Amino acid sequence: MIELHQISECVWEIPKTGKMLVPGRIFASAKLIHDIRKDKSLEQVMNVATLPGIQKYSIAMPDIHWGYGFPIGGVAAMDVETGVISPGGIGFDINCGIRLLKTPLTVDKVKNKMKEIVAVLFNNIPCGVGSEGVAKCSTKDLQNIVKKGAAWAIENSYGLPSDIDHIEENGCLTQASLEFVSDRAIKRGALQLGSLGSGNHFLEVGVIDKIYNSKVAEAFGLFQNQITIMIHSGSRGFGHQICTDFLDKMQTALKKYEIYVPDRQLACTPLASDEAHEYLSSMAAAANFAWTNRQVMMHKTREVFESVLGVSQHEMQLLYDVCHNIAKFETYEIDGVQKKLCVHRKGATRAFGPNVQETPEKYRHVGQPVIVPGDMGRSSFVLVGTEKAMNQSFGSSCHGAGRQLSRREAVKQAKGRAIYRELEDKGVYVLSKGRHTLAEEMPQAYKDVETVVDSMDIEGLTYKVARIRPLGCIKG
Length: 476
Description:
The chain is of the alpha+beta class. The protein has one domain (5-475): tRNA-splicing ligase RtcB. It contains 15 helices and 19 strands. The chain has helices spanning 30-36, 41-48, 107-110, 114-124, 139-148, 150-155, 183-192, 214-220, 236-256, 274-309, 387-392, 407-414, 419-425, 437-440, 449-459, and strands spanning 5-8, 11-14, 24-27, 58-65, 72-79, 84-85, 97-106, 202-211, 226-233, 269-270, 317-323, 325-334, 337-346, 348-350, 369-372, 380-385, 396-398, 429-432, 462-475. Strands 7, 8, 9, 11, 15, 16, 18 and 19 form an 8-stranded mixed sheet that branches. A 7-stranded mixed sheet has the order 1-2-3-4-5-13-12, sandwiched between helices. Strand 1 (5-8) and strand 2 (11-14) form a beta hairpin. Helix 4 (114-124) packs across helix 10 (274-309) and helix 7 packs antiparallel against helix 9. The chain is globular and about 60 Å long.
């Protein structure tokens, strides 16, 4: 059993042993730790701690679970001069992320039309394995998408100019390029712009049923009984192919640069290398595609609400869009010195505190919105980032509930049950494309998200602002 020292109520540490360069640090309650021990994610935290140039800690969030190389829910910051970049620390679905759309509507305005809303959303937003998007693009279009990110969508009438101010990085990483992206990735991306995908991706209509912090809620434009829409998707086959292609290159880089890793899935290359430059520009291309993808789907969602409920698209404002699987160059204080770091976040999201330049000006006095989805049958949360997160977790927070059942086990446990009927009995209307999707994604497949966000709240890395109860959902 891996040795864990409890530092505080929701902070645990794995001592530095063997080839570990830094300790492991896990933010979770004792109850969550009991469940976390059931898979190999803590071993992965230790493995990440061996990577060259890692700073302070190999970090895990309370939604941690086993992943490819890095645990999902993992955060690792690398010194730009001595550190490495590892695609396993970003994941296959580059810039998988979530955005929250606010409406002026209250629950009484939509409760009798939820079945119709879900049906029209399902018919207008492509979802499912291999689904093609609503905005198919040429190679030239894809070059512009990669260059401009979400701004391309707005220039092409998929959204409002004000949306850009409420997207992380304004929806564009400037180092993006198709120069090192394979033809196969380009072909996959050209077909899938404006599509939800499958797995844990979703579009969900919900209602705010509890406000925890009225001051921050007011700053975010959130209120009791307000209808909201969450869109959770990523870079689709485009990003997946980019990750796949570069994992092969990184295996070669291990030998070339004589880097030892305890798990081949942690294949990496020095940040100063040509291979790192090629990967980072391609990763940024996938990130920009993902922001554009969510922007297109949000526009289609606005159209549906306008047609079904008569609400103007201009009245439906984007709260924020955060990404979960990404590497970012950020500056933090390490041993009293300001250092530029490459922060890997895999199944984790930024949680920047007040007065941070990267946070939209509208929210800067309170902190960055953090959007944490739960599952189809329970709540989701809006949180706010804190100054403590900047000091303790490289400005990072959990990104969701975190799986506690494998997809195979979830399907096994759902056998003989009508999951859609169970959800409808709770007042949640769901339509899905895939045969096994609802079984794989049933509420019991996930940890209780409230216990996850409470761990963040107790340690002060984020604070709860509002709780959202699901009303309707479409899945791949």
